[in-house]
Amino acid sequence: MIANLKRNIIANYAGSIWTSLMQLAFVPLYIKFMGIESYGLVGFFGTLMATLSVLDMGLNGTLNREMAMRSALPGQEQTSRDLLRTVEVIYWSVALILGALIVLLAPAIAANWIKSSTLAVTDIQQTLMIMGLVVVMRWPFALYQGGLMGLQKQVLVNGLNSLFATFRGLGAIAVLWMVAPSIKAFFWFQVLASSLETLAAMYFLWSAISVTARRSRFRISLLREIRGYATAMMGIGVAATVMTQIDKIVISKFFTLDLLGYYCLAWTVGTSLIRFASPISSAIFPRFAQLVSIQDSAIITNLYHKSAQLMSVVILPLAAVIGLYSHEVLFFWTGIPKVANETGLVTAILILGSVCNAVNNIPLAMQLAYGWISLPFWTNVVAAMLFTPVVILLIETFGLPGAGLSWLFLNLVYVLIQVPIMHQRILKGELFNWCLHDIVIPGLGALAPVMFCKIFLDQPSSKTGVLFLLGVAWCLSFLCSTVAASCIRQHLATWIDVLIARFYSKCINGLG
């Protein structure tokens, strides 16, 4: 099991890093070919997809958990196939309805919501209609991905994600270069890429569940069994989506597409930490669920602190470098000084919010593994009701930096309220260890060397010099954070001892 967990974490990171690189590599080219306002429409589509995800009724997260728990129990193959068929029928039906609604509402959205100074209303309307087709083919992918993750087929999932991230990016650039540098051509290619990706994930998930004597069928009784967990997951998803997308929704309404494009660029960099956090939580959650099902509390506590420290060692050095060098990172990425000037501050603020989001991932995974969904549910509901007016006020007062502040305040509240409440019921007495040993000490180790570089080292002006400085700062930060994290340090020391022992053994055998 431990070997599988390590393999899944490595696979998740490899996939996340590759897909992130693909996204970061192609965004400047999208802007070059289509312009910042067209890229604003790409950002609008991302917000649209995230908003529509609330309509999965919690089935994605529920299928992940059910597949993980049933895979640890014998004789559950037929039930697993029936559950997948049941959820699949619902998912595809909703996808078709959503796509049709987007097509029907496209004229009203183009005329009354989106503001552009360079794109014609008819072009925006036609682009929105194509987005509806992308939604139909893209939306069910999350279901199949969740099922595969629950079965711990995470190497496969990340292979698919990496393959299609590359295909989607390279193909889009090829279309923009050789066919037409237009937003409509971009989204027509996304229809093709999304169709292939979803169908591939569907095939692999069905293949991963053992074939049984009876064909899978739609069963209402299975929906009754999971409705409590699924309903709470849906509530969590609805509130979380409101809080993560309301800033972009407000910006798309009150500002022009170019400012939405700038904010989406800042969001891409500022929330990139989440891409590095999700591989750990995605790999850990099925293992948590299995340990909870067999009630092994000692191993759960040990794994909880190890995974929390691993999260800190991975996330905090990146956060320190990107946060303190946000202007340099943006200039190195885009090569456009105006982009760096417009988005540097908001990117740094978003990074702080993403740190809080990332360190909350492991406690949240533990809550969901125990089935304690009422805590994140009600936390999200209350936060969503209070958060929306705060976002609007901050954006109206401070502009784009205000949107970043809303993200920071939201995630800070989660860490300060939700995590302490969790430790009153789950892993009692471990809150202090989590705060000090899992977060604060590794965080100080990560921050100190980057601040030293920022204060005492000369800041280069060339891209090569910027890259070298960022690399040095990150290496020092990662090293200090790793040494400061007790569980990771002990694990690393054990690994080094094993390597040394093997080396001496080979030397002795060679002399003999």
Summarize the structure.
The protein starts with a helix and ends with a helix.
How does this model look, in words?
Helices cover 86% and strands 0% of the residues. By secondary structure, it is an all-alpha fold. The chain has two domains: 1-249, no CATH class; 271-512, no CATH class. α14 (337-359) runs parallel beside α17. The relative contact order is 0.10.
Topology:
Blueprint: H1 2-34, H2 36-52, H3 59-71, H4 77-112, H5 121-138, H6 141-150, H7 154-178, H8 183-208, H9 220-254, H10 257-270, H11 272-294, H12 297-324, H13 326-334, H14 337-359, H15 361-369, H16 374-398, H17 400-422, H18 431-456, H19 463-484, H20 486-511
Helix pairs in contact: 1-2, 1-7, 1-11, 2-9, 2-10, 3-4, 3-6, 3-11, 4-5, 5-8, 6-8, 7-8, 9-16, 9-17, 10-14, 11-12, 11-14, 11-15, 12-14, 12-15, 12-18, 12-19, 13-14, 13-19, 14-17, 16-17, 18-19
The largest β sheet comes out as: none
Look at the helices and sheets and give the structural class: mainly alpha
Measure the end-to-end span. 37 Å
How much of the sequence lies in strands comes to under 5%
Report the order of strands and helices: HHHHHHHHHHHHHHHHHHHH
Contiguous helical run count: 20
What is the arithmetic mean of pLDDT? 83
Low-confidence sequence ranges? none
Number of domains: 2
Provide the helix percentage.
Answer: over 70%
Shape: globular
Count of individual beta strands: 0
Q: Whole-number radius of gyration?
A: 23 Å
